[in-house]
Write a structure and sequence with these properties.
heterodimer; A: 113 residues; mainly beta; 5-stranded antiparallel beta sheet; globular; B: 115 residues
Chain lengths: 113, 115
């Protein structure tokens, strides 16, 4: 079946690194995504990784993928108060059709001074 | 390029009524997907349209329906509203032509409250 799990809360100090973890179940997923949602807003695509990659870096964001363990992580370097939001991990489910994203419950990141 | 637009942004209805939500995708995008976000169930996939055809459907009752027009704009309809339909309804736009889960761009959502 399709399922994505993430821890619900993460609290970090401003300037530290944040690491948000996610596990997924659908081995046919070829793309995995990280979205950010700020209060009252829609979802903003942060980054995504193709399943044949182990790592992808984009400025302060680093995505690590362990396909064997179906584990995905998002590292935010030098976390700022503006990074406070809910972060969703999502897998692109190919079974049954196109463009279906399965989301985790979201990790609420709180950044404190 | 303009982003994904959704109208209206906020809506209040009563039980038993029906509602229609609208989504305009990014220019040139042909795929529109709809998601429901609630505190209890999180983000759940409703359906996806490409070139006026529904390609994929989530596990929602038949009260939830949608359509797509020739200009790729999409509407979703919920009939006989229930209290549990109160949610943020998000629309996502993507090119839709690669046969995989394309990068999806989300609109700001329509907040539906059912009283």
């Amino acid at each position: 079946g399709e399922d994505v799990e993430q821890s619900l809360f993460l609290s970090v100090r401003e300037g530290d690194s944040s690491v948000i973890n996610c596990t997924y179940t659908d081995s046919s997923s070829t793309y995995l995504y990280w979205y950010k949602q700020e209060p009252g807003a829609g979802l903003q695509l942060l980054t995504y990784i193709f399943s044949n990659m182990d790592m992808k870096q984009d400025q302060r964001l680093t995505v690590l993928l362990n396909k064997k363990d179906k584990h995905l992580s998002l590292r935010i370097a030098d976390t700022q108060t503006g990074d406070s939001a809910i972060y969703f991990c999502a897998e692109g489910a190919l079974s049954g059709g196109y463009n279906k994203l399965i989301f985790g419950a979201g990790t609420r990141l709180a950044v404190h001074p | 390029k303009a982003g994904v637009t959704q109208t209206p942004r906020y809506l209040i209805k009563t039980r038993g009524q029906q509602v229609t939500l609208s989504c305009s995708p990014i220019s040139g995008h042909r795929s529109v997907s709809w998601y429901q976000q609630t505190p209890g169930q999180g983000l759940q996939f409703l359906f996806e349209y490409f070139s006026e055809t529904q390609r994929n459907k989530g596990n929602f009752p038949g009260r939830f329906s949608g359509r797509q027009f020739s200009n790729s704009r999409s509407e979703m309809n919920v009939s006989t509203l229930e209290l549990g339909d109160s949610a943020l309804y998000l629309c996502a736009s993507s090119p839709g032509t690669s046969g995989r889960s394309d990068e999806q761009f989300f609109g700001p959502g329509t907040r539906l409250t059912v009283l």
